[in-house]
Amino acid sequence: MSSLSPSRAPEKPFTPRRPPRPPQAWSYCQSTRELTIYDYAGQMSVYHVDVARSDCGCTYELVNVDARFGECRTVHVGDDRADDSCDCAGFCYREQCKHLTSCVELIRRGILPFVEKGGVR
Ligand SMILES: [Zn+2]
Q: Among residues 114, 13, 121, which one has the least CA distance to residue 54?
C-alpha cells in the first residue's frame, strides 16, 4: 500500500482554471455505510465508505455501488485542512471535489466517523 507523504509546498504547482463547483446535497446512512452525493448537475452517486486511520488524519475509501460499480476514490481528510486530498480528476484540477466536500461536511456534523490521530493508546 502506498503511504501518504506530507507534501505541503508553499507554492501551488498550478492555478485552478475554473472555480470549484460544490455538490448540491449529500447524505450518509450509518447502517449501510452508504454515502449518496448529488453533484452540481444534480447527478446522484452512491458510494460504500470504509474508514481507516492514517498518519495525519483519516482516509476514506469511497467505492461506487451505483452505475459505476467498483470505481474507488480515496479521500483523505487531514487534521489540518492543507492535508485534505482526493485522488479524483476534479480535485486534481480544482483542489476541491464533491467527495472531499461531502466527507468534510459529514465529519463536521458528526455523521461520518473521524478516527483521531494515533487512535486509542
Ligand atoms: Zn474527489
A: 114
pTM of the shown model:
0.77
Q: In what order do the strands lie in the sheet with 57-64?
A: 25-29, 34-38, 44-54, 57-64, 72-78, 85-86
Backbone φ and ψ for 83, nearest 5 degrees, come out as -90, -5
58 vs 115: CA distance, rounded Å: 6
pLDDT in tens, 70-101: 999 999 999 888 999 999 999 999 899 999 99
- The domain spans of the chain are 25-108
CA of 21 to the centre of ligand 1 (A): 12
For 46-55, the pLDDT digits (tens) are: 999 999 888 7
Instruction: Give me the residues near ligand 1 (ion), CB cutoff below 5 Å.
Output: 86, 88, 91, 97, 99
For residue 121, how far is its CA from the centre of ligand 1 (angstroms)? 31
